[in-house]
Amino acid sequence: MVARQLVRRGIGDPRVLAAMASVPREEFVPDDRRRDAYRDGALRIGGGQTISQPWVVAFMAQLLELRGTELVLEVGTGSGYAAAVLSELCAGVIAIERDPALADAASTRLDKLGYASVEVRTGDGARGAPDQAPFGGISVAAVAQNDAPRALREQLAPGAALICPVRAGDDERLIRIRDGGWEPFSAVRFVPLVTGDG
Q1: Mean pLDDT of successive 10-residue segments in the chain (198 residues)?
Q2: What is the DSSP string of 116-133?
Q3: What's phi and psi for 88, nearest 5 deg?
Q4: What pTM was computed for the model?
Q5: d(Cα 197, Cα 111) in Å, to the nearest integer?
Q6: CA distance 105 to 122
Q7: Residue 164: phi, psi to the nearest 5?
Q8: CATH topology of domain 2-187
Q9: CA end-to-end distance (rounded Å), the chain
């Protein structure tokens, strides 16, 4: 996976490559999909959610440009896979999942696998975790409409990056927001970011 899917497609950060090699992706997919765990694509994990393809997880992690000392916020935790990868790159992760069943399963899985620096919370990820802000990086694994949520932008430390897929019209792509500036990157496809009562 690392050589064929990641290095060949531009993932060059050695820390990200090492994190992707060390996290056992098969532990984060349903039992009947384990043989597909390392395929170059997203996989359904239940509750209408997916685990992102390996390249997307690695690319988002690389865009954060983490040094290892940061507290990172992850929105849309799903299976917990990306949170585990991020935990290899920073000091700690606050991971928020809206679906209580997925959040409980992710928390149990991360604990069992020894990812003690990840705290999984159930709630509206678009509101972030203001009690732990500011964050040295924020990664959002669900597509926002037109802009990343204001609450998340306000919880970002100076110089830190917020990575979020944003849809404008028919165009959906990863955006990096840092110090008020926007940088568009790869076209992607994510489940919608649900906030409030919707």
Answers
A1: 89 97 95 90 83 94 98 96 98 96 96 98 96 98 93 97 94 94 90 74
A2: TTEEEEES-GGG--TTTP
A3: -80, -10
A4: 0.94
A5: 30
A6: 11
A7: -150, 130
A8: Rossmann fold (3.40.50)
A9: 36
